[in-house]
Amino acid sequence: MMMRQKNGLSRRNALKFALGTAAAGALVTAARAQDGQAAPAGQAAPAPAPAAPAATAPANAPVTPGWRRFRLGEAEVTVLLDGVRPGDGPFPTFGEDQSAEAVGALMEANLLPTSSFVNFFQPVVIRTGNETVLVDTGFGAGGREGGLGMLRQRLEDAGIAADRVTMVVLTHLHGDHIGGLMEGDAPAFPNAHMIVGRQEYEFWTSDAARSGPSAGNAEAVSAKVTPMEGRMTLAEDGDEVAPGLFAREAFGHTPGHFAYELRSGGRRLYLMGDVFSQFVVSFQEPDWHVRFDMDKEKAAATRRRYAKLLAEEKVPFLGYHLPFPALGYVQADGEAFRFVPETYALLIDPPATGGQ
After folding, report:
1. Burial 195-224 (b: 16+ CB within 10 A, else e)
2. Are 125 and 78 a contacting pair, CB within 8 Å?
3. Which of 76, 94, 183, 274 has the smallest count of CB within 10 Å of its CB?
């Protein structure tokens, strides 16, 4: 049930910012299933770009803030920038079933370059009740040579100790979401229980996933996720996995992809994972195919369904790959939608509701 309390968000303790560093770089093999520069099934992967510095970036790095914190009712939410990756695109990763000219025209209409874009990777920490919940884990050590895999540094910068994380929730099991689960042969979050969607885990550990184009990612799941089976709960649609945090079916990008809805103090927030993965195309052309959606028609239907819900109910959301800090709203625009970045609405105490 929704947690409704009168005492709303105080302005004095609302948003906190800190500066960090970010760098862009090479393709990470374990994350090829969801990277804008990866090759489609049956094609050779492109040569990796020159590696950027592993730990820090120069002063002119494309994005320098490393984390952003805000309150949602009684919960505290911290967005952590695991890294950024500039590259060619967004076509054909986005609008795979369209022409390069059509995708380029959409970018130009939105004052963006027609043949290059930037991808962002953003896990989230939620403090709710007695739980400190990490949602997705970034690239991990495998990404650091290319300036990704910055989650551990971001946690430290934000004052969150890895051993204080009590739960790791995974929206789905692509490499850029599970890479940070392990540090070497040891769990990166030694005191955390793990939540994975049942359908998602059963697919990636199946014989079908271990063959064909999904085999590489299935191998990453075997290395990063399967060792945690003893501390894992397989979630179903609608489960409350932590106080006020509910699993919501969002299949299509992967067979068991979940979004998560956070409810606290009369406020709501959706964590959308990879349902929306490009802040123009995903909203203005939600029916266009995305290369790394495993079921493209189902993924498009899921995008449209959640865009409609978020627009009608005016609920804020976080998108893992949207521009940092990936927080905003959806606005209806005829038969399509637009992404509206959050500015200050969450700084304002919600209006009091009488009777309670």
Report:
1. bbbbbbbebbbeeebbeeebebbbbbbebb
2. yes
3. 183
Cα of 11 vs its chain's centroid, Å: 27
Phi, psi of 272 (to 5 degrees): -95, 0
The pLDDT score that the predictor gives to residue 65 is: 67
Bond preceding residue 53 cis, omega within 30 of 0: no
Q: Please give the average pLDDT of every successive group of 10 residues along the chain, which has 356 residues.
A: 32 28 32 43 37 41 75 97 95 98 98 96 98 98 92 95 98 98 95 98 97 96 96 98 98 98 97 98 98 98 98 98 97 98 91 51
Q: How many residues does the chain have?
A: 356
Q: What is the pLDDT of residue 350?
A: 75
Looking up tokens 């195309």, which residue turns up?
281
- The DSSP string of 166-211 is -EEE-S---HHHHGGGEETTEESSTT-EEEEEHHHHHHHTSTTTTS
CB 85 within 8 A of CB 138: no
Per-residue burial over 263-280, b if 16 or more Cβ lie within 10 Å, else e, is bbbbbbbbbbbbbbbbbb
Question: Residue holding tokens 């959409």?
Answer: 106
CA dihedral 309, 310, 312, 315 (to 10 degrees): 130
